């Protein structure tokens, strides 16, 4: 049941899709995990808004989910070995129907991207360190992998986390639609690849080399500014687009609680680890596991630098994903089995108060959330 904590002037989405980790990674036991869950907004005059489950599909550990740009489909990747790519139809009433699924050629698929026309899919695999491409036709059928990229670059200095290439995210540069940016935690690099119409991947330019032990996890491109979150160093690397590459302008910590760890750290004793990164208007929002906080930075687009604004508790444990929309920050708290929604305006207005928990607009339970998609219902 949804718990409402504070009133707010913003508009809530009519539908939320949650990709959740399965307790049985094989997917053989449909009762052992969450898969894809669809929740719709219900207005209750006495109690305020609530999100109610209207659809479910027991896919194994869909840790990243992307809506198709033109069709009522969800494309997801399962963080399993081997990984699985699925295209699922989302009906107006919230029901889910799998149109196609196929095993990828890699392990630990953790991120994917769709081209603007929705006909090509790119998948990043953390486990095998590879990036693969697939075709998606007008009926939702998948073909591939069409090509595979694997880095041969030198590994980073962390013998445990950087024992091999680990592709953690794949992003299409919004200003160069055929260029693919790949965060490789294992090699401290952001690879720059060229995506061809037939699905081939070739090197577009030399990789962006980050400081040793940085461990790039996620990035955002804001016009001519690139912001990369380092999971291992708990830092943001900021750069400016220049002469066909990226010139470094700044490195800044993601949290004011560096070195403070809690039970929700991915590895006890490690430094806090930024787990999700989003950009909205002129704000960069970062979720950090360990201290379990949300940090807000303000971007100066002229200088391609960011300034720390505030940091607040995320309202749960082990934030896995964060989405910013309509003045709200949605946090998927994996280990506390809930989604917590914070008021971004209230967070920034109270900057400087420290790490007190921000008042939640609302929160609702959902098992082991890994990824959030906010949608309006199509008419």
From TrEMBL:
E.C. designation(s): 3.1.1.31
Keywords of the record: Hydrolase
Pfam families cross-referenced by the UniProt entry: Lactonase
InterPro entries for this protein: Cycloisomerase_2 (IPR050282), Haem_d1_sf (IPR011048), Lactonase_7-beta_prop (IPR019405), WD40/YVTN_repeat-like_dom_sf (IPR015943)
Enzyme kind, highest EC tier: hydrolase
Hydrolase found in the keyword field: yes
Record flagged with keyword Hydrolase: yes
GO MF assignments: 6-phosphogluconolactonase activity
Family according to the record: Belongs to the cycloisomerase 2 family.
Protein name (database record): 6-phosphogluconolactonase
